[in-house]
What we know:
Helix content: over 70%
Distance between the termini: 71 Å
Low-confidence stretches: none
Order of helices and strands: HHH
Radius of gyration: 24 Å
Oligomer: single chain
Largest sheet: none
Amino acid sequence: MALSKKARIVIAICINxxxxxxxxxxxxxxxxxxxxxxxxxxxxxxxxxxxxxxxxDVAENKSNSDGYTYGVRSRGVVEGRGWIKQxxxxxxxxxxxxxxV
Length: 101
């Protein structure tokens, strides 16, 4: 029996939380700054996994498909702004090259 995506994320969060506390405790008792720093880096991984769990939950919920478009409707506006930025940066680079000559 295969585990669902959310169940695998919960297992990964639990494992990381256990290792986080182990590294914090051992790092402070051994006065090891490397272990404490790695523990707080692992805390960043825990937060990322929580965001991943939220994303899996949103993707699994079919009733929110109309509410969460993730910017698909405004894609053309973003593409247009990107092209304008690219063209203006190219233009300013040409002006700078021509003024140097």
